[in-house]
Design brief:
Layout (H helix, E strand, L loop, with lengths): L12 H5 L4 E3 L9 E5 L1 H6 L4 H4 L2 H8 L10 E3 L3 E3 L2 E3 L7 E8 L5 E7 L14 E2 H16 L6 E13 L3 E11 L5 H9 L3 H15 L9 H23 L1 E2 L21 E2 L23 H20 L4 H12 L2 H16 L9 H14 L4 H12 L4 H4 L9 H14 L3 H9 L9 H12 L4 H10 L30
Antiparallel strand pairs: 1-3, 2-9, 4-5, 6-7, 7-10, 8-10, 9-10, 11-12
Helix pairs in contact: 5-17, 5-18, 6-7, 6-9, 7-9, 8-9, 8-10, 8-11, 9-10, 13-16, 17-18
Bound molecules: adenosine monophosphate and magnesium ion.
Length: 493
């Protein structure tokens, strides 16, 4: 008998309760798994023994070649609208859900491997991942978490010792991802598109148990589940826009029921404020441009609404359409309210006043016109709140400066009669100094691909504490030098 307690206290509801929603599967063999990054803080949060996992044995688990006791590895099935076109079957083509654990706070969390080899859903792909995109997801996901934005997390990144062919030979890697679930809009779409209403209902009840337990057994719970998802997505997208994040591939299979950001592929952060900003090399039409994210989120929610129709009113579909459409129509207001509240905090405002939207719009128009660095501007604006307007004015060209807007903003602040030092402090707690600047991320990934992980560690350290300015880190606090040219991201697989 094994005297040691299992490394993971798995309790696998998905495997147990949702037969027919997945295929039980195993990871592919790889030659030489090695831990590149291990997230000790997250391991502790999950109640795991970091000492036992940050080891060669842990590397085998995180590469998918060793199944830890209690795991029930499986590939989930889902569908999805990709760039507007429906794919009736996607699914985990290169991922395995190992199982679920209950974290320190009592929350159920999925532990999933990404890049662990082909599955029945690979559709011709190799099921693998390479170092660059794996570390990108690790770095940006952890940065988003530190910025306070709901997101999947990264527990570990391992290199596999395998050479994978993309544009050329690349080192193989696997990411261990943690999520409050991997339920997607596309998971509902898969069963709805096949007319399997009982399965949609089973999935909806499962989602309710996991994400909206107060709704369990209540009347009208499926419409309320829809409203819950909509509220979470409105809040999430508002947070993205407020921080300057462009997801880049907001397909319905990348839209979670939990409201967490998922699947960091061709994502990026804006430097200059520009609603039309697109970074992804595959987003030719700008469908997923920075400023279109709320509209797209609503479109994705409409696809969820369609998938739930037969549950919302089984006897009268017209009535179901009417009810869910009315609910969906609230999205723009929910988004706007979440965004404006966040913007008020960025501007140092504690109260709501009639002209706030106007005040924000006037600022953004000027920032757009002069291509002002979004993150740096807001950080320096907090100094203006404490009386030093020089820094923020210095970002604008001399003519067409910001004075008029600043005095309007100052008047608005004066109404609240706050203490300027407090206002500055409050603003600094929501306006980061450090975000994952595209060029710094790229620089770190290039080093890692060549075997030097130091820049990745350094970057992770900077991004772990994004609101506290520290000496010697100014290189992480500004936009890319102009000579680097426009930034492009690739859908790293
Ligand atoms: P993603 O772009 O990561 O959101 O993935 C979209 C779909 O493509 C999902 O079904 C993935 O499982 C699948 N996929 C992405 N990359 C690969 C790959 N290298 N091999 C097999 N399937 C993949
Ligand atoms: Mg995806």
């Amino acid at each position: 008998m094994n005297a040691n307690p299992p490394l993971f206290q798995f309790d696998n509801t998905y495997a147990r309760d949702l037969e027919g929603f997945y295929v039980a599967w195993e990871g592919a063999k790889v030659p030489e798994p090695q831990i590149a990054l291990f997230n000790i803080e997250l391991a502790q949060e999950l109640g795991l023994d970091a000492k036992s996992l940050d080891t060669p044995y842990g590397a085998r688990i995180f590469a998918g070649i060793e199944s830890p006791e209690g795991a029930s590895p499986l590939a989930q099935v889902y569908a999805g609208h990709q760039f507007g076109g429906f794919s009736p079957q996607l699914g985990d083509g290169r991922a395995l859900l190992l199982g679920e654990v209950i974290d320190r706070d009592g929350n159920r969390r999925d532990i999933q491997l990404k890049g662990s080899g082909p599955t029945p859903f690979s559709r011709g792909g190799d099921g693998k991942a390479v170092v660059g995109p794996v570390l990108r997801e690790y770095i940006i996901g952890e940065a988003m978490h530190a910025l306070g934005i709901p997101t999947t997390r990264a527990l570990a990144a391992v290199t596999t010792g395998e050479t994978i062919y993309r544009e050329g030979p690349k080192p193989g890697a696997v990411l261990t991802r943690v999520a409050s679930s991997h339920l997607r809009v596309g998971t509902f779409q898969f069963f709805a598109a096949r007319g399997e209403t009982d399965k949609v209902r089973q999935l909806a009840d499962y989602a309710i148990a996991r994400h909206d337990p107060d709704l369990a057994g209540t009347d009208d719970r499926y419409l309320k589940l829809f409203s819950g998802v909509m509220q979470r997505q409105a809040d999430l997208i508002a947070r993205w826009v407020l921080i300057g994040f462009v997801h880049g591939v907001m397909n319905t299979d990348n839209t979670t029921i939990s409201g967490e950001t998922i699947d960091y592929g061709p994502c990026a952060f804006i430097d200059a404020y520009d609603p039309a900003a697109v970074f992804s090399s595959i987003d030719h039409g700008g469908r997923y441009a920075f400023g279109r994210q709320p509209v797209i989120a609503q479109w994705n929610l409409a696809r969820l609404a369609e998938a739930l129709l037969a549950l919302i009113d089984p006897d009268d579909l017209d009535k179901a359409v009417e009810r869910v459409s009315e609910e969906l129509g609230r999205f723009p207001d929910l988004f706007k309210r979440a965004w404006l509240n966040g913007m008020r905090a960025k501007l140092g405002l504690r109260t709501e006043a009639e002209g706030d939207q106007d005040l924000a719009d006037a600022l953004l128009a000027q920032m757009q016109e002069h291509r002002i660095d979004y993150t740096r501007f807001f950080r320096k604006l907090s100094d203006a709140a404490a009386g030093d307007t020089q820094k923020v004015l210095g970002l604008f060209p001399e003519e067409n400066g910001l004075e008029a807007w600043l005095s309007r903003w100052q008047q608005r602040l004066d109404v609240e009669a706050g203490n300027p030092a407090d206002t500055r402090k409050r603003m600094n707690s929501v306006n980061p100094v450090y975000i994952p600047r595209n060029h710094k991320v790229e620089e770190a990934l290039v080093s890692a691909e060549a075997g030097d992980f130091d820049p990745v560690h350094k970057l992770l350290g900077v991004l772990a504490d994004p609101f506290a300015e520290r000496d010697g880190l100014s290189a992480y606090a500004g936009p890319a030098p102009a000579e680097l040219g426009p930034y492009r991201t690739f859908c790293g697989t």
